[in-house]
Specification:
- The chain has 126 residues and is of the alpha/beta class.
- The protein has one domain.
- It is built from four helices and four strands.
- Helix 2 crosses helix 4.
- It is globular.
């Protein structure tokens, strides 16, 4: 299979990274930031991952993104396929989604590298 790079990010921390496929998680999926008990946690914490992965539509979007990566990878040009997925702050939805997509793609035989651009940044006060 192919090499895939997945970059999670927060739109509130700057422009999206260049990618073949950019997924905006801000408007259709509930933000764990709104829950005071989750706000200062990140995708490194199980309650955040559970909240995000149990959001209706997320699993279907992971599958659709994996299908899109497969389509890019099957094209005639060789090279890394880059996926960028973003949420507001880059600490909850985007890194959780990136890891779920990476797991799905790795299971399908792709070589995957995940980078979280904004996971370690401070909580955005909004």
């Amino acid at each position: 299979m192919s090499e895939v790079e997945i970059v999670s990010f927060g739109y509130l921390h700057g422009e999206p990274p260049a990618a073949h496929l950019t997924i905006d998680l801000r408007h259709h999926f509930r933000d764990p930031h709104v829950s005071p008990e989750l706000r200062y946690m990140t995708a490194d914490d199980e309650p955040v991952r559970t909240a995000v992965l149990n959001t209706p539509g997320i699993t279907a979007l992971v599958e659709a993104a994996a299908a899109s990566v497969n389509a890019f990878a099957s094209g005639p040009s060789a090279g890394v396929v880059t996926v960028a997925d973003g949420c507001a702050g880059g600490r909850h939805r985007a890194p959780t989604f990136a890891r779920a997509l990476a797991d799905r793609l790795t299971a399908a035989g792709h070589s995957v590298v995940v980078r979280h651009r904004d996971l370690a940044k401070a909580v955005v006060q909004r």
